[in-house]
Amino acid sequence: MQTWQHPGVRFAYVINERASSITTLHHDAARGTLFSVATVSTLPDGANAEENTCVGIAASPGP
Predict the structure, then answer these.
(1) How far apart are CA 2 and CA 16, in angstroms?
(2) Rg for the chain (alpha carbons), in Å?
(3) Angstrom distance (rounded) from CA 56 to CA 63
(4) Distance in angstroms (rounded) separating the CA atoms of residues 12 and 29
(5) Which entry of 24, 29, 44, 58 is 20 to 30 Å from 7 by CA?
(6) In whole angstroms, what is the distance from residue 1 CA to residue 9 CA?
(7) How many Cα atoms occupy the beta-carbon half-sphere of 41 within 13 Å?
(8) Could you tell me the pLDDT band of residue 6, with boundaries at 50, 70 and 90?
(9) pLDDT by residue (tens digit) across 19-62?
(10) Is residue 13 within 8 Å of residue 4, measured between CB atoms?
């Protein structure tokens, strides 16, 4: 599992390598916890997840 947290924003992104998905987590600073917001597949419909793994997340700052 790899994680990446966007600087200045209260979100972290987790790669679920074997599941070929990415989970977005929200950071609750008051409680010091992370909770899941959404999990999305990194594969197109019909792709075989058994033959694929995730490697990394590339992100850029928004406007």
Answers:
(1) 8
(2) 13
(3) 23
(4) 13
(5) 44
(6) 21
(7) 8
(8) low
(9) 888 999 988 878 888 899 999 998 888 887 777 777 778 777 66
(10) yes
